[in-house]
Amino acid sequence: MDEIEVDAFLADAAETVQGKIYALGVGWNVIAAGQFPVRHASLAVAIVVHVPYLATNEPHRIELRLEDSDGHPVPLGDAPPGAEAPDGKIYRVGGDIEMGRPAGLPAGDEQLVPLTITLRGLEFPRPDHYRFVVSADGEDRKVLRIRVERLRR
Asked: What is the pTM of this model?
């Protein structure tokens, strides 16, 4: 199999250091709020990209987006000054990766690329089922579902 595979999870905080992901507050998928819209102070999406042996030495595009239950895009944040964003919002974040094939790598072995994306002040407009979607080379590879609900009293 020569397709990129992706694993991912949500965390309260995560960072990538020396090829490893360090995360805090893992294993949740619900946010409860008393009023809407609500801004979540900070959350991280931790991603591990599996680059197959035959997909090394070439660029791959990795992107993250957020959708509501109807599949409509939800902004991930405000666009930086000067960015082309008609409504001033960012709907996708990502970049290109390229893994070399080190000398001596056994044929068929994959390379791992750990990534973390921290989203601060992410606004959820209403209670709903949302989904973070991680794509690789334009194909959706991983979906992380998150439920945002009204706080029960």
From this structure: 0.93
